[in-house]
Design goal:
Helices cover 38% and strands 19% of the residues. It has 371 residues and is an alpha/beta fold. The protein has two domains: 265 residues, NADP-dependent oxidoreductase domain (TIM Barrel), CATH 3.20.20.100; 92 residues, Conserved hypothetical protein from pyrococcus furiosus pfu- 392566-001, ParB domain. Helix 1 runs parallel beside helix 9 and helix 3 crosses helix 4.
């Protein structure tokens, strides 16, 4: 079972490297362990490795470089450049930095990590076109692009092909099924699904969890393996799964080695159908809960945590393309308070919406129900 990226074939479950941690906190032992886990995946046939200059400030690329030493010809490397590196010279310099950290002279797939409405897409695509001509990158991809943004980027790129789009896709966030996924399947464009396991968040109802458990037991697999299999059974989709151990990597690989029945595929899809609600931003309570989260519009505008993309830039992009990807909420048990909901996901997107449209325009949201 393989998926196509351009003219290359890759394993349908890739190896992700988010959460590697900054280089300042790195240790030789920790890097060796992370590299060994990635190398184990390569030995199992998981030849797609996804990274970015953003992850750990380049630390993830250094770890990947150690993992692929001596086996570069067996690995398909995908990396991405930051939203503040969209200018022509910045793209060129970012690529050179990634090549140095990875210890290779070319990257298979180089991706625009996030759209940046402040830089003309023509300038960014021209830089990527030059890098392809120089042989430093083989394919061009995008990430977090809507269908409209992809079509515009492809129009600018001309006769060459943008071979992939990396987007969030899991049982909770399925908005790409409406427009992007049918388009990508019809046009042979790879969909790279990040957060296929929803970053381990337990947002399932008891009924949903029970269904997944029963299906998993029927195949003698784990719930996570069933979810990964469901994700990659959607045509051109490649799931990017993180792993902190060889055991988990082996389980990820095994998820591509069994088949879900049509009935089970449909049962899962039906059980996880999501209705988009529209709520007033002022009715939503924002809680930090140990994460770098902004509590006011002013804080979000200043972006002192250097979050990518910044709420302000994302706001410009949402306004320009009328993007309606939902935030995630739970109902507030404190009925006496001013907030009807509590924000549990998409904090940057929440503040971006408020910056773009103010407090009186309802924001699309998934409201997590319990049973």
């Amino acid at each position: 079972m393989f998926r196509c990226i351009g003219n290359d074939c890759v394993f349908p479950i890739g190896q992700g490297t988010t959460g590697t941690g900054p280089l300042a906190n790195a240790s030789d032992e920790g890097d060796r362990e992370r590299a060994a886990v990635l190398r184990h995946g390569v030995d199992l046939g998981m030849n797609y490795i996804d990274t970015a200059e953003l992850y750990g400030g380049g630390h993830a690329e250094i770890v990947v470089g150690k993992a692929i030493r001596g086996v570069r010809d067996r690995v398909f490397i995908a990396s991405k450049f930051n939203p503040d590196h969209h200018r022509f010279s910045d793209v060129i310099n970012a690529l050179d930095g990634s090549l140095k950290r990875l210890g290779t002279d070319f990257i298979d797939l180089y991706q625009i990590h996030w759209p940046n409405p402040r830089v003309p897409i023509q300038e960014t695509m021209e830089a990527l076109r030059v890098l392809v001509a120089q042989g430093k990158i083989r394919y061009i991809g995008v990430s977090n692009f809507t269908l409209q943004e992809y079509v515009e980027a492809q129009r600018v790129f001309g006769s060459g092909k943008i071979v992939s789009n990396q987007v969030e896709y899991n049982l909770v966030e399925r908005s790409i099924e409406e427009a992007w996924l049918p388009y990508s399947q019809a046009n042979q464009i790879a969909t790279l699904a990040y957060s296929p396991l929803d970053q381990g968040r337990s947002g399932f109802t008891r009924t949903q969890q029970q269904l997944l458990q029963e299906i998993a037991e029927g195949y003698d697999k784990t719930v996570f393996q069933v979810i990964l299999r469901w994700i990659v059974d959607h045509g051109s989709v490649i799931a990017i799964a993180k792993s902190a151990s060889m055991h988990h990597t082996s389980q990820n690989a095994e998820a591509a080695q069994f088949d879900l029945s049509t009935d089970d595929m449909e049962s899962i899809a039906k059980a996880f159908q999501r209705k988009t609600d529209w709520v007033l931003p002022a009715e939503v309570q924002v809680k930090a809960e140990g994460k770098p989260v902004y509590g006011t519009v002013e804080e979000a505008m200043k972006n002192r945590f250097d979050l990518f993309p910044s709420p302000e830039i994302l706001a410009e992009n949402i306004a320009k393309w009328k993007i309606q990807k939902p935030i995630r909420l739970i109902r507030n048990p404190d009925h006496a308070g001013p907030f009807r909901y509590i924000l549990v996901g998409e904090h940057i997107r929440y503040w971006a919406w408020v910056i773009a449209f103010g407090w009186e325009i309802p924001i699309p949201a998934y409201i997590q129900e319990v049973d």
